[in-house]
Amino acid sequence: MRLTRTAAFGAAGLATALLLTACGGDDKAADKPAEKSGDKAAASGASGEVAQVMQAVAKKTTDAGSAKVSMTMKMPGAMGGSMEMSGVMGWGPLAMDLTMKPDEQSRAADPDMPETSRMLWVDNALYIKLDESAADDMDGKSWMKLDMNAALEGADASQRQSASNGLDNMNNQDPAKQVALLLSSPNVKYVGEEKVDGVTAQRYKGTLTVDEAMEANDSLEFLDKTEREQLVENMKQSGIKDYKIDVWVNKDDLPVRIDTRTNTPQGPVEVSQRLSDYGTTVGVKAPPADEVFDFLEMMKELEEAGAGA
């Protein structure tokens, strides 16, 4: 029973972290020159002066390589709520070290969720720091690991779609990819000058349909053509119609705020990301192996135990 309770906590924490809903790329896409991504996007999306500005922003952001970040994620429905995250992020490849703080609604939906927890993302694996009681349940191992590459191995088509989408959702937090995605919008436009945390910034916004977002998204490489088409169809059937993105750019051609919004039948999924201190040291490393338990292995053991029972 204790193992089952801990597994439930781990799954809930994992789901919360992965529900940074957006469309983006993987680490390989991050290694591509920003100019190429921008040129491709401009061909089917932004054009003229706006495209030139966004291409410059994408290149400057890619070159910066890292930043301090604070995010707020809002989820709809009875199991929804909001989550605040803050820490450091590097990209190319993506690495994050964030402290997560759920609101009261989120914690009410999952009584095992702690007031704060630490999340690492490194080498396409998610690590979540457990509280002391949960760690005691796991023989003192205080970190839960979900290896997204391992999750894709041997999975069926539906599981591959879920795992690939989860991997994409994490990797999409790279702000350079968000700018490239905005470039792909056929209606991207300049909104005007606004203040962001006291800093003067220029705001740009655009909207993409599910088809347009998937067309711009080259990260779902683990899916074949049929699986990719099915993923798009599943998104449409779930009631997701479009993806909205707003980017605020400072005088140095760097984004200081990125907002995304996905409308669902349950309500909007919103993520607001604020960036500062570009070029900051990240240095994210995986926790020591003897302090980590594998989420996938644990779930496999639970399934085998259930089958045996």
Fold and architecture overview:
The chain is 40% helix and 30% strand. It has twelve helices and twelve strands. Helix 3 packs antiparallel against helix 4 and helix 4 runs antiparallel to helix 9. This is Lipoprotein. Keywords: Signal.
**How much beta, percentage-wise?**
25-35%
Q: Low-confidence stretches at least 5 residues in length (pLDDT < 50)?
A: 1-8, 14-45
CATH architecture: Clam
Distance between the termini: 14 Å
Helical content class: 40-55%
- Helix and strand succession? HHHHEEEHEEHEHHHEEHHEEEEH
How do the strands and helices of this protein lay out in sequence?
Layout lengths: L1 H17 L8 H4 L3 H11 L3 H17 L1 E10 L5 E10 L4 E8 L1 H6 L7 E6 L2 E5 L2 H6 L5 E5 H5 L4 H15 L3 H9 L5 E8 L2 E11 H7 L8 H13 L4 E8 L5 E10 L2 E10 L15 E3 H14 L1
Parallel strand pairs: 6-12
Antiparallel strand pairs: 1-2, 1-11, 2-3, 3-4, 4-5, 5-6, 7-8, 8-9, 9-10, 10-11
Helix pairs in contact: 1-12, 3-4, 3-9, 4-9
Task: Please outline what is shown here.
It is built from twelve helices and twelve strands.
